[in-house]
Design goal:
The protein is mainly α and about 200 residues long. Helices cover about 70% and strands about 0% of the residues. The protein has two domains: about 60 residues; about 120 residues, Four Helix Bundle (Hemerythrin (Met), subunit A) (Up-down Bundle), CATH 1.20.120. Helix 1 packs across helix 2 and helix 5 crosses helix 6. About 25% of the residues are buried. InterPro entries: TgpA-like_C.
Length: about 200
């Protein structure tokens, strides 16, 4: 620190001999103004960037759910039955349920049940028919499945068309109803003459 003070004193004395005290003061004022101008300009450039970063962090929820990226299924009508295996619908239902997206989980479980009935030839798949129409046809072809399918269709319709908020209980009910349908079909309670018919 002493070395800097000595250098400053000697430099100021040398400059005052050459330029005079007035010029030195004028140069120091110009330097101070330039530093202040640069500081202000730098602050204007830096502060908005810091604010933008802060806002981005605040907008992100702490536990943002993963998106189920599947354009074919995500863009399909809720009541449609895309041409995919039942296991795909069940996998999606479980992922939606794990994220608390109960309405989507209910939809995928009903799709899985109807696809299972198509695969087991309880009903024929009619493109353009809704899952609720297909479920009704299955209930007519296999009376043992009518009650659980009607209940599942009601849960689905209340949520997707009646705008009832979906809950975990709805998803649990859909799992139970799907098991009942599966047991009815696997237990041979579907008349052989009706299998494959609609």
């Amino acid at each position: 620190m002493t070395g800097f003070a000595r250098w400053w004193t000697e430099t100021a004395a040398a400059l005052s001999d050459v330029l005079g005290l007035g010029w030195i003061l004028l140069i120091l004022l110009a330097l101070a103004a330039a530093v202040a101008l640069l500081w202000t300009h730098w602050s204007r450039l830096r502060v908005p960037r810091l604010r933008l970063r802060f806002r981005r962090r605040r907008r992100r929820p702490a536990a943002e759910p993963e998106k189920n990226v599947d354009p074919v299924l995500d863009e399909a009508e809720p009541d449609a039955l895309p041409d995919l295996p039942a296991a795909t619908f069940l996998s999606r239902a479980d992922r939606f349920a794990a994220q608390g997206q109960w309405a989507e989980a209910v939809r995928e479980r009903l799709r899985a049940v109807v696809r299972l009935l198509v695969d087991r030839r309880v009903i024929d798949h009619h493109p353009g028919w809704t899952v609720t129409e297909l479920a009704s046809a299955a209930g007519r072809n296999a009376p043992a499945t009518d009650e659980p399918l009607t209940a599942a269709g009601t849960i689905f319709s209340d949520i997707w068309y009646g705008e009832k908020p979906a809950t975990e209980d709805d998803d649990t009910s859909m799992k139970r109803l799907a098991s009942e349908v599966d047991r009815a079909v696997a237990g041979g309670r579907v008349p052989a003459s009706r299998r494959g018919g609609s």
